[in-house]
């Protein structure tokens, strides 16, 4: 049997929270700084990141502005067949690590 809407919504909130936390940390911002910029408490940011509270669209857009991110970086890509969602940030990290490894190899060959 498939997931209920509540289970699906909870899973999505957890994924969005994870992405939000990763982006915030990548930008070097604390929960406190993001919260201050949003005019909320850092505890609320914690709840967003844990997936305990859902993020409204206006709040999501504000967060994107603060983090200098596109909303899809937080929402993620959803395939048309509704199968497993790819982790966009993980894919980008894998690409960046691959490029770094190639650059390190080139530098090592020159020395």
As for the CATH topology, it is 434 Repressor (Amino-terminal Domain)
| Top CATH class | Mainly Alpha
How do the SSEs run, as a string of H and E? HHHHHH
Number of helices: 6
Unreliable stretches: 78-85
Rg is 17 Å
Major beta sheet, specifics? none
**Overall helicity:** over 70%
Terminal Cα span: 59 Å
β-strand percent reads under 5%
The general outline is globular
If you average the pLDDT, what whole number results? 85
CATH superfamily grouping: lambda repressor-like DNA-binding domains
Structural class: mainly alpha
Number of domain units? 1
Tally of DSSP β-strands: 0
The appropriate CATH architecture is Orthogonal Bundle
List keywords for this structure.
111 residues; mainly alpha; 434 Repressor (Amino-terminal Domain); 6 helices; 0% strand
């Amino acid at each position: 049997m498939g997931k209920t809407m509540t289970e699906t919504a909870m899973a999505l909130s957890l994924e969005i929270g994870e992405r939000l936390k990763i982006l915030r940390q990548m930008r070097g911002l604390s929960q406190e700084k993001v919260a201050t910029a949003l005019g909320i408490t850092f505890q609320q940011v914690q709840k967003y990141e844990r997936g305990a509270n859902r993020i409204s669209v206006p709040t999501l857009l504000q967060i994107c502005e603060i983090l200098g991110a596109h909303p899809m970086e937080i929402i993620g890509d959803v395939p048309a067949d509704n199968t497993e969602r790819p982790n966009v940030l993980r894919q980008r990290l894998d690409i960046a690590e691959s490029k770094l490894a190639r650059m390190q190899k080139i530098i090592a060959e020159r020395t």
